[in-house]
Design goal:
By secondary structure, the chain is mostly beta strands. About 15% of the residues lie in helices and about 65% in strands. It is built from five helices and 16 strands. The two termini are about 30 Å apart.
Amino acid sequence: MYYNKGRYERAALHFKKALKFFPADSLAREYLYYTYDFTGNAFEKQRTATKLLATQKQRLGYKLRAVQSVSLSGGYAVSDNNALNGGIALWQPGVINAETRQLNNTGFVQLSMVNNLSKNIKLISAYNYVGLGSTYRVDAIFFDSSATYTTHQNSLYLSPVLYLGKGWTVAPAGHITHFAYKSYRRAYETGTPTNTIDTVSITQYYGGLEVAKRFTGGSASLAVGVSNLAGQLVHADVGLLYYPLGNTNLYGITHVLALRDSIKPHFAITQKVGFKMAKKLWVELGFAKGLLRYFVEGNGFTIYNIPDEITTKLSATLNYYHSSHVNMFVGYTYMQRQGSYRQSFGAGNAIDYNTYYNNHFITTGITFTP
């Protein structure tokens, strides 16, 4: 009954009870395998598959493959920062100099992979490149100057996931990011103010550990870690996945993010809701609110290391499951961001002013499952 209604989590309980009383019931074990497949419980799916009859494995085409999935994605963000704030008069009477670094359009590409090291261990890995357009402006008493450049960021993520049984997993994770950008400083060696260009390279890291537990109707997770995104930071992420209707046709994912720096703790919340729109189409809607700067998500998979704060984030993603081997998606994300510029009056006296702008992000990608 539960299986035919799509309530696979509940159906799994009944199939497990049936196998407890009659372990040789191969049909119940096969349907248990299907329930884990439909709910994305890869570890239990693999453990159940190893106990299937040889004829069942052959019919299902099951084999523990070294590569579970490969994903390629990319996107481009269009910013109105320059249109809204590029004309701000930085210098005013009484100001010695004023400067700002405006973030503009952004592009990225990402390649990720999930490998099965054994039936109880899998490895998640990802490489990501980001190209971030920027404009540096400085206005002073005697001269004005500006320069446009691109910040290049490369990052690598690794996380082995260990299945402990009874729905428990533990996953250490590491994320290393290296980026290079142009730094402009005023020099007076020639007797007149000029800009000197320096190339700055910075390496950032995140190291953490996530513990998760699947239960009937969803899962819960807790991730903690440290980073050097802005000094020494401590991160925490409490997540909950749930199925309000008791089936996989509607789900919600809630995360509460916490960050502790040298001054005080900061908090943010993210919420996603997904639902089945048609036989092969899924829609996922999301929002985030809080100080989304120097936060991390997904056990360090996503890092917000850009200095401009994201004050509001809204997203919509359309997933098309072409077959059991190919999944494609296209998404749109709106981000309201907060930048700043500084006016200096001498003798260490300076004032920072906030600016606001919007990013419109289009992403697309494809996932192959052998």
